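Trying the structure run again after the queue cleared.
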Amino acid sequence: MSLALRPLRSGDVGWLAELHNSAFAAYPVPASLTAAELRSYLDATDVRLDLSYAAFLADEPVSFCLGAVRGGRGSIRGEGTEPSHRRRGLGAQVLERTLAGLTAAGAGPVTLEALTVNVPAIRLYERYGFERRRRLLGFSLAQPPGRGWRSLLGSRLQPLPSQLAVELAVAWGWDDAPWQLDPESLLHVPAWSLDRRVVVLGHRRRDRFWLYAVATDPAHRGRGLARSALAALGVAWLGVPALVPEEWGEGIAFLRALGAEQDAHAQFEMVRPAIL
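Done. Tokens:
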């Protein structure tokens, strides 16, 4: 069958979501996205479709790689191949084309995340110059702080424009975050505030909440305000994606003090240094 590679286009998002879901269906951490959810993800992570490549066999899409650019940095925001077409080098080809596109667009260092158990993917990335920088951890909390904490200051938890929430978090020390926790990514995440002393950013799914960031004004730390803010969400389950750098000791200690359990799967943040 004839092989063709081309950059992605806006109209490709429909079949791209289907290919993504098929590629990740048997993944250690399965991922399924609607076309609308995928488009939101592309926007939030600054994916450039014109720099991202897909492989086609007999006009059928079988492999893809998503490339993003922010300033002088690049990132691979997802890569997958239809299971029936793996071990043919298709992932390497779309990765190579996407990396070339990112370099041509001015990206210096390029980052990505890979599950620590995904040895074939890690070996592929290492062949293309990526190095393991740090581990990223995820957590889940089946019983978030309850009514006792919620009654303290819960009534003051109010929606906040994401732009302002991110500005506050950065002013309070939010730095050196992986791509999806970068300030630019967090601008796309709903936010709440507790008296402008704590900001919480995340996605609510009925009685479940995916926490992307919680930050407290340094002048008000040590008073249980972050715990109160999470309690005020009133959810039955709280999850933190596997994006928390292992060296963020204070944040990890806070989650563990709440009773959060570390997820079974972690990720490596990998970096390809700038090509001179």
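The first strand starts at residue 3 and ends at 7. Worth checking whether this holds up in the mutant runs.
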